[in-house]
Structure formats: structure tokens, C-alpha cells
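We were asked to recover a plausible sequence for a given structure. The inputs and outputs are reproduced exactly as logged, with field labels preserved.

PROBLEM: sequence recovery
POSITIONS: 403
GIVEN STRUCTURE:
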């Protein structure tokens, strides 16, 4: 085997320019694939990191389950079953409702617990206090936008009482109204999300006034992101529906893998040119070495020996292609990051492009380099199969006549 590759090296050394052009053609194709793939991988990594930074991977949101037309409610027993999981730190249930003031101002009400505030740390008070779950359950806390609306329309502020109407449905779906008096105990700072338009009350009070015996949803806090998937599976085993930030990450991964594969495929078309160059060069080599092949076969070399001789040359070309292609690919990725990053950041705008400014938009991983090397090696060998087989099938008598 050592002698075979030594002979192949000497043969390639006699046609340095031709080999260089082959290597350059395939290496450029490999570099293009690596550069485009590293761009897709870099954007994927950046997107995932932004999701991780803006979402809590230890939190799972649970809602009622639906299957075969039936609804599985979040009852107290299911809540206790989730709480007893060894990796669950706490559970924050909530209920939702709609109240209307005497002046017909709509209020989106959410009954919560103190654990809910631990999940949503952006719920910070601007004025007043949170209601006490064991004290006056008629106290409420207003979201920032709701407080402004009630101040303008109802002339209500911190410490004021007001009457709200709750629409319930009795027998045969007949509507019935219930009224209640609430005191504004606190006003929240602007959170920049849906909480600005919500009103918060104690969950026990909300369920009592709305005559509910099940929760509309809950948040589950696990002790480690590594156990979030297993806890989620057990929750779904109860017939409930569970969502987490990992869902968003999975969707981003699927999308970027698909985009990267498509881009890699089209950039890999340039490898066809390199493959044709290998075929052309090896076929020319067969014609140039007809006498040598005929003499070798006359001295006892088998068809397989001749094929090995040509394929060894292809293997050497493929190895050089792979190394050179990987080095060019790394350089190409650095060039993309240097030139393409400012353009991409400006195209996305300040909000979307902010996350790309601090990191690289390309990510050259060992896996990408390994694939690039393997592509060049396999492509070189496969491209050399036909010329090698043609050389092996050469008739030694016809070859010797040319001596």
C-alpha cells in the first residue's frame, strides 16, 4: 500500500500544473459550501442565543388539553400531580375573565398567585401594593395602560373603589350578571407586553366570583433546563397541552437547517465542475500512460491492480482538495463575517440586527469541516472510478503495439 501511494505521488508530481488546477477547482467548490453552511449555522446559533437570553428555559406553560373533540381541564388534582414531580420547583396557576365597569369600560382580568409574579419578574409596582392572598381579596392591581384608561374615562386612581359587572352563564346558557366592588391597591410599571392591558386579582377571589372549579392555565418552574423536556412529557401524559421556549428553538433549528441545506446544495453545484476536471484529467492520463498500463498487465498486473493505481492518485487529490478546501472555507467564512456582517445588520435594522453586532454571523464547526473534507475525498474517488475502470479494461496487446 505504501509503494502504491508512493507511485501515485510520483505520477502526480509529473503534472503539477494539471493537479493544481484540479485541486483549485474542487477546493473552491468545497470552500463555497463551507462558507454558506457556516453562515447558516452562525445565524442559527445567534437566533437560538437570543431566544435563550429573552426566554426562561426552565418555565413550561400549560393549558387545557384537547383530543378527539374532548377537553381535559386543569383541575386541582392535575395541579397536585404536577407539583409532586421531583424536578418541579413550583407551579403558578391562573384564571382569566372579563369584567365591565358601570361606564362599560372593558377589563381583561387575570386571577394569579404570588408564584405567578415569580415567573413574570417584569410585573413591578409603580404605585401602591400587591393584594394580600390571605387578606382583602377584593383588592386589585392595574396594568399600566389599564390604569391610564380608567384614570381618563372613569376618573379612578390608586385607593379608589369601583363597581364591576361579571357576565356569567347559568342553566341552558342563559346569561346572568354578578356585580362586585373592587379597590385599586396598586398600579404596575409598563412591562411592554400584554400585562399592561390586564387587571390582576387574587386567584381564589377570581374563581369564586366566576364560579370556576378549574384553572385556565398554569406555569411550571423546573429546577434545571435539562429536565424541562421530561417534565413536559409527564405533563402531556396527563392529557394537558404544554409549551416552552424550547418549541421556538426547535422551530428555528428546523428552519435554519432547511435553509442551510438549500443554500449548500446550490453552492455545491460548483463541485460538479471540479468533478468533471478530475474525470477529464484521469482520462487523459489513461491515454498518456497506455504503454505503461499495457506493460504492467503484460508483466502480470491484474485489472484490480491497475484500478488501484489510478484510484490511489484520486485519493491523494481528494485529500489535498479536502485540506485546501477547508482552509479556503475558513478564510471565506471570515470574509463573509468581515464584509457581510455590517450589511446584514443594517438590512435587518437596529432591533433585529442588534443581536448580530456582538457576535459572528458565521460558525465554522468541526462537523462542517469534516463534511467538507469528506465531500472532496468522495467526489475525487467517485470521479476517478470511470477512468480507472477504463484503464483496467485496456487490452494489453493493443497497448503493447504502441511501444
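RECOVERED SEQUENCE:
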Amino acid at each position: 500500500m505504501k509503494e502504491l501511494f508512493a507511485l501515485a505521488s510520483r505520477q502526480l508530481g509529473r503534472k503539477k500544473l494539471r493537479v493544481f488546477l484540479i485541486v483549485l477547482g474542487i477546493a473552491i467548490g468545497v470552500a463555497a459550501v463551507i462558507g454558506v453552511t457556516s453562515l447558516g449555522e452562525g445565524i442559527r446559533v445567534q437566533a437560538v442565543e437570543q431566544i435563550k437570553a429573552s426566554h426562561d428555559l426552565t418555565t413550561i406553560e400549560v393549558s387545557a388539553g384537547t383530543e378527539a373533540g374532548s377537553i381535559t381541564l386543569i383541575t386541582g388534582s392535575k395541579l397536585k400531580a404536577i407539583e409532586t414531580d421531583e424536578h418541579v420547583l413550583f407551579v403558578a396557576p391562573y384564571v382569566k375573565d372579563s369584567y365591565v365597569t358601570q361606564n362599560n369600560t372593558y377589563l381583561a382580568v387575570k386571577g394569579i398567585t404570588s408564584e405567578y409574579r415569580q415567573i413574570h419578574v417584569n410585573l413591578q409596582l409603580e404605585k401602591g401594593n400587591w393584594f394580600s392572598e390571605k387578606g382583602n381579596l377584593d383588592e386589585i392591581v392595574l396594568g399600566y395602560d389599564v390604569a391610564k384608561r380608567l384614570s381618563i374615562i372613569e376618573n379612578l386612581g390608586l385607593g379608589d373603589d369601583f363597581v364591576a359587572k361579571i357576565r356569567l352563564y347559568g342553566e341552558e346558557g342563559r346569561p346572568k350578571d354578578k356585580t362586585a366592588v373592587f379597590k385599586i391597591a396598586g398600579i404596575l410599571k409598563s412591562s411592554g407586553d400584554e400585562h399592561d392591558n390586564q387587571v390582576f386579582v387574587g386567584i381564589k377571589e377570581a374563581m369564586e366570583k366566576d364560579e370556576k372549579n378549574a384553572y385556565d392555565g398554569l406555569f411550571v418552574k423546573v429546577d434545571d433546563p435539562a429536565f424541562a423536556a421530561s417534565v413536559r412529557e409527564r405533563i402531556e401524559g396527563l392529557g394537558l397541552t404544554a409549551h416552552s421556549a424550547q418549541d421556538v428553538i426547535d422551530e428555528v433549528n428546523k428552519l435554519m437547517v432547511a435553509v442551510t441545506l438549500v443554500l449548500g446544495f446550490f453552492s455545491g453545484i460548483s463541485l460538479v465542475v471540479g468533478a468533471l476536471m478530475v474525470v477529464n484529467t484521469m482520462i487523459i492520463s489513461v491515454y498518456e500512460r497506455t504503454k505503461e498500463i499495457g506493460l504492467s498487465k503484460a508483466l502480470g498486473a491484474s485489472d484490480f491492480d491497475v484500478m488501484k493505481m489510478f484510484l490511489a492518485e484520486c485519493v491523494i487529490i481528494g485529500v489535498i482538495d479536502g485540506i485546501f478546501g477547508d482552509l479556503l472555507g475558513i478564510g471565506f467564512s471570515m470574509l463573509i463575517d468581515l464584509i457581510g456582517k455590517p450589511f446584514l445588520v443594517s438590512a435587518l435594522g437596529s432591533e433585529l440586527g442588534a443581536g448580530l453586532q456582538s457576535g459572528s454571523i458565521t460558525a465554522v464547526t468541526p462537523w462542517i469541516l469534516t463534511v467538507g473534507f469528506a465531500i472532496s475525498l468522495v467526489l475525487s474517488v467517485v470521479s476517478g472510478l470511470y477512468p480507472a475502470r477504463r484503464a483496467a479494461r485496456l487490452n494489453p496487446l493493443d497497448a503493447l503495439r504502441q511501444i
